[in-house]
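Protein in question filed below.

…
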Amino acid sequence: MAQLSLSKANTIIKAALAKATEAGMRPLSVAVLDAGGHLKAFQKQDGASLLRFEIAFGKAFGGLSIGTGSRTVEKFAKERPHFVEGLVAASGGRVIPVAGGVLIKNAKGEILGAVGITGDTSDNDEIAAVAGIQAAGFIADGGQG
């Protein structure tokens, strides 16, 4: 199984925050998880509000939980709320069902991990995550809206 290195995780964070700065986004928090849902790296920009680690982690964890970006989890929350309620309960409350959690895939389509970003709109969080993943040479999967 392919793995996500700490160096690549840090590249993702650096590029995501650079994209946020370039686009004038509000202060972001970025969590990078490995394929097993374990934290690989995290950074929180100055001025980011409370609970941002938990939200960023939950967006990434939610995507990993069902094998697609968290935009799909958000879609399921609207269309199949009973399923997402169960998913949140089964995860011990760790799943945050909104866009901004993006899977990290290699060229073979294998899931290496996920990035969760919070701090701006969910769409902007996702834009920053995709930029970070692509800058590290990986493929981003934000899910289907």
In short: Residues 6-23 form the longest helix (18 residues).
